[in-house]
């Protein structure tokens, strides 16, 4: 079974600082990887996805992630944090034969201070 | 275009009761998936339906069931509710292919007392 591990349940940054949220995956086949964001009391919004095209994936709101097969990682970054980035971030891998199932990590809460 | 919609927004039930949650997918999407998100955890896959047939099932007991209607909307049913069923239930729609994005609705918050 495929899985993802998100290191750090909480990450704190100052406004304007670099955001780095870590995700490592375990997969026996080339993975499809996703980053979602969840704001309080809301559903999940897709930030970006990797589907074996370019290894550097650009998403919405200035976020990007780099797929590194040698490190089995798919870390999410943003050069400059904004207060509105404070939310829960989930990394997910798609698995399933004949169906589509997302396997999520436990999430990382991003805190942004002024 | 309207996104994925879910109803109700919040629901309070007591142990042993039955609950039905509803989901309408994005127009043109034929697949609906259900996820359970317990507080402090990532979402867990329950079911995927495509063209009115169950295509995948997660590790959930038979108390959980679902169906998809001809208009591609879906219902999730949970029988004999337990306290541990308290969670945010998320519905996601997609075209179906494994690379497709799953678009999530706002969820239904179920509290079991």
Could you walk me through the main structural features you see in this protein, from its secondary elements to its overall organization?
- The complex is a heterodimer of chains A (114) and B (113).
- The radius of gyration of chain A is 14 Å and the shape is globular.
- Chain A has strands spanning 3-5, 10-14, 19-21, 24-26, 32-38, 44-50, 56-58, 64-68, 73-78, 87-95, 101-104, 108-113.
- By secondary structure, chain A is mainly β.
- In chain B, 0% of the residues lie in helices and 50% in strands.
- The mean pLDDT of chain B is 93.
- Chain A binds chain B through residues 32, 34, 36, 41-46, 49, 51, 90, 92, 94, 96, 98-107, and chain B through 4, 31, 33, 35, 41-45, 48, 50, 55-56, 58, 90, 92, 94, 96-107, 109.
Shape of chain B: globular
Oligomeric grouping of the chains: heterodimer
> How many β-strands of chain A, per DSSP?
12
Which range best describes the helical content of chain A: under 10%, 10-25%, 25-40%, 40-55%, 55-70% or over 70%?
under 10%
In the predicted model, the low-confidence regions of chain A spanning at least 5 consecutive residues are none
Secondary-structure-based class of chain A equals mainly beta
Give the structural class of chain B.
mainly beta
Give the CA-CA distance, first to last residue of chain B: 37 Å
Distance between the termini of chain A: 41 Å
Radius of gyration of chain A: 14 Å
Number of helices of chain B: 0
Helices and strands of chain A, in order, run as EEEEEEEEEEEE
Beta-strand portion of chain A reads over 45%
Q: Round the mean pLDDT of chain A to the nearest integer and report it.
A: 92
What's the order of the H and E elements of chain B? Answer: EEEEEEEEEEE
């Amino acid at each position: 079974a495929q899985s993802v591990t998100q290191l750090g349940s909480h990450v704190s940054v100052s406004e304007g600082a670099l955001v780095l949220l870590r995700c490592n995956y375990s997969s026996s086949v080339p993975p499809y990887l996703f980053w979602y964001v969840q704001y309080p009391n809301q559903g999940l919004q897709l930030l970006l996805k990797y589907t074996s095209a370019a290894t550097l994936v650009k998403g919405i709101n200035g976020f990007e992630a780099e797929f590194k097969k040698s490190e089995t990682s798919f870390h999410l970054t943003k050069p400059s944090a904004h207060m509105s980035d404070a939310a829960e971030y989930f990394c997910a891998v798609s698995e399933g034969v004949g169906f589509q199932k997302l396997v999520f990590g436990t999430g990382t809460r991003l805190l942004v201070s002024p | 275009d309207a996104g994925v919609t879910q109803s109700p927004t919040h629901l309070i039930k007591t142990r042993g009761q039955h609950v039905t949650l509803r989901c309408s997918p994005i127009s043109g999407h034929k697949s609906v998936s259900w996820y359970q998100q317990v507080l402090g955890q990532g979402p867990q896959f329950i079911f995927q339906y495509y063209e009115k047939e169950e295509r995948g099932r997660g590790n959930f007991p038979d108390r959980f069931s679902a169906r998809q209607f001809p208009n591609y909307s879906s219902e999730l049913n949970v029988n004999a509710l337990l306290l541990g069923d308290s969670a945010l239930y998320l519905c996601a729609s997609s075209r179906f292919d494994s690379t497709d994005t799953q678009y999530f609705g706002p969820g239904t918050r179920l509290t079991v007392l």
